[in-house]
Amino acid sequence: MEIIEEVASVLKVSKGKLEIDSINTFLEKELRNIEAEIFKIGAKHGIKTIFEMDEKLKKGEITEEDMMDDFMELDYLESRKDDLLKVMEKTQWTSLN
After folding, report:
1. What's the CA gap between 78 and 50, in Å, rounded?
2. Each residue's pLDDT tens digit in the chain (97 positions)?
3. Euclidean distance between the first and final Cα of the chain, in Å?
4. Got the DSSP string for the chain?
5. Which of 24, 69, 91, 95 has the fewest CB atoms within 10 Å, i.e. the most exposed one?
6. Radius of gyration of the chain (CA)
7. How far apart are CA 29 and CA 58, in angstroms?
């Protein structure tokens, strides 16, 4: 017996429900971690989005060398967040059916 089947049996839920709920919990945790990292970078530069950071750069309020690493990290985190939200929409829909 697989561990997922054993846990589902003990909890008296279907294997499918346990899998979807587990995936959703994992995705929510990942999303919270990403949002925390985005917040840290934003607080460091006084921004909330990558677009605000770009505006500060264009206005000369921050220099490229001061923010390039954070800009690239923020861009990656925003992309990862979008991917997670797309997957979460699919799993929410799956759990409704």
Report:
1. 8
2. 699 999 999 999 999 999 989 999 999 999 999 999 999 999 988 888 888 888 988 898 888 887 889 989 999 999 999 999 999 988 876 665 5
3. 26
4. --HHHHHHHHHT--HHHHHHHHHHHHHHHHHHHHHHHHHHHHHHHT-SSHHHHHHHHHHTSS-HHHHHHHHHHHHHHHHHHHHHHHHHHHHHHHHH-
5. 69
6. 19
7. 34
Token pair for 29: 């945790």
Q: What is the pTM of this model?
A: 0.80
Question: Residue ranges of the domains in the chain?
Answer: 30-96
- 9 residue type, one letter: S
